Amino acid sequence: MKKIILLLFVILTIGSCRSMDDINTNPDTPSTVTPAFLATDAILAITKSESSKWLFGDEYIVKTTMMTEHMEWYMYNKFERLDAYYDNFIPYSYYSYLINMKKMVEIANANESMSEGIKHAYTALSDFMQAYIFYGLTMEVGDIPCSEALQGEDSGILSPKYDTQEEVFNAVLKKLRESSELFSNASTFNGDPIYNGDPAKWQKMVNTFTLRVLNMISKKQAVGDINVQSMFEEFANKPLMTSEADSFMRTYSASKSAQWYPFYYLNQNYWMYPVMTSFFINKMKELNDRRIFYYCEPATALTAKEDSYDAYSGVDCTMTFGKIQQEYTEGLHSSINKRYFRLAQGEPIKFIAYSELQFILAEAALRGWKTPLTAKEHYDKGIRAAMMFTTNNTPEEYRHGVTINDDYIDDYLAGPAAFDANKGLEQIMTQKLIGSYVQLRYNSYFDYRRTGYPVLPINTETNMNEVTTQLPLRWMYPEDEYSQNKDNIQSAIQSQYSGEDTPNNVMWLLK
Description:
The chain is mainly alpha-helical. It is built from 20 helices and six strands. It has helices spanning 2-23, 35-46, 57-61, 95-110, 116-141, 152-155, 165-183, 199-216, 228-235, 278-286, 291-295, 321-329, 339-342, 354-367, 375-392, 406-414, 424-435, 443-451, 479-484, 486-497, and strands at residues 65-67, 222-223, 226-227, 248-250, 274-276, 349-352. The strands form three sheets. Strands 1-5 form a two-stranded antiparallel ribbon. A two-stranded antiparallel ribbon has the order 2-3. A two-stranded antiparallel sheet has the order 4-6. It is globular and about 70 Å long. The N and C termini lie far apart (90 Å).
């Protein structure tokens, strides 16, 4: 009997332990890592926007919006080290997502039950993620670790060398070509919160992004063994985005707090501080651009009706910060439209867009490169798409009694905004800036840096950049690199910038 009782006790104890294991397993946490899980994690990372005043970080740089809570250094053109701010285009820490992408492909390829089409999709996604993150990092600082960046586990390379910016762009373009080809033979895959795993939509986006990259280096005849113009003309005839619905963008929802628009007032307490600038307001007034009514609120101290351009004013963004605060407090200038913080669903935030594509094609046509349509036709299509996107995402009560429709856009394109090839580049850059308000983060700054358009206001008395007549040209390398990869980063700085890591170094891209 004692033996029987002891045996029953052991069985009950083991059973109890198993029950506790079951109880302590969180059903919302995956017990194994899947390709879908890693895909979702990475896609959400590159489409994340700050739910704070840093949603407007790049708007401070291109002088469309100022923040009146505190003086932010971007407002006065001071750049520091990458990752020193809450917001950058691509942080150095995103190398970790590339390691995860490598794991994603390994897990997918090891799964014998997974179809080749799905495996192609995950490999294509990994190629795109590498291209996107390497592109973002090199655009910010110059030379970066690329060819050896993901070799720690396989080859034991924990201090990767820095590839030249030309080598990085060459690798980026080859990864994009591979990604496009793989997506053309891929099947629908799991873990995609943007396109629901549709490989055709991914291919169109990858091809569109390829044109952005090539456009950014359009001053170069060749990048390594790639002819820039030839590759651009080739990809301009591949499947591309056909409407703003194809844009690579994050959409939001009012139904769950985790899916609210980043600047919704319950997500942050900065909603009362943004103020529009005279540079941005006056650009829209000059063009009779009704987006002013959809982006802004009437200045409280002005007496004109809300549907009049006279009700809107912007602050001189080159004044001292105290003066900006004072004038805004007195109600002399417009704040952002209330829809940016009153609507939980907000508007989708685009990272690669159809309207942007049309402006890229317009610029290429202006250079004489072969494009599907003329420069004017692409320019007009870009404006129309950007305007309708804003209209479709601005409810009636936030339009201040002003309508943007096809008839208005027709008049706009025949009026002050009518395309003129003699000043076409400036017009294209101006329309890209206006159409990407709180969209396409840092794209307008990168465009300005390479073209000088639109001409941004600079006051040498308040400019905090070391070269007071210009904006900074880059961010400095992260502090961690000097301790973790000292020899390689010092070599890269020496070869690029004669040993000086400053915000005004001229990277290969700009030479």
